[in-house]
Amino acid sequence: MGCLIALVALLSPRLAFALLWLASDRVSIAYESDVVPIAGLIFLPWTALVYAVVYAPVRGVSALGWLFVAVAFLADLASYGSGARGRRQRA
């Protein structure tokens, strides 16, 4: 199941996060309520996906895990920035 989620994440992080949420309990373990994962699904899909994957039930997120979350956050910001640049170039 993990390899399938990883392959889908290359195409669409939102779809991969939704599949992870439906097919496993990783999202419900990582997030206490449903509000934050829904907001992550809409606004920061890479960050929400990586946080759910690196979260450990007993310890939380390790230092290396936070590094992965930070890289995912930068990927989300880069996707928003490249979208804005593309809209400016078309106009």
What does this structure look like?
With 91 residues, this protein is mostly helical. It has one domain (2-90). Helices cover 80% and strands 0% of the residues. It contains 6 helices and no strands. Helix 1 packs antiparallel against helix 2 (13-23), helix 2 runs parallel beside helix 5 (45-54) and helix 5 runs antiparallel to helix 6 (63-90). The chain is globular and about 50 Å long. The model has no long low-confidence stretch (mean pLDDT 90).
- Considering DSSP H and I runs of 4 or more, what fraction of the residues is helical? over 70%
Number of helices: 6
| Strand segment count | 0
Low-pLDDT regions: none
Distance between the termini: 42 Å
**Biggest sheet descriptor:** none
Mean pLDDT: 90
Order of helices and strands: HHHHHH
Class from helix and strand fractions: mainly alpha
Strand content: under 5%
Number of domains: 1
Radius of gyration, in Å, reads 14 Å
Tell me, briefly, the overall form: globular
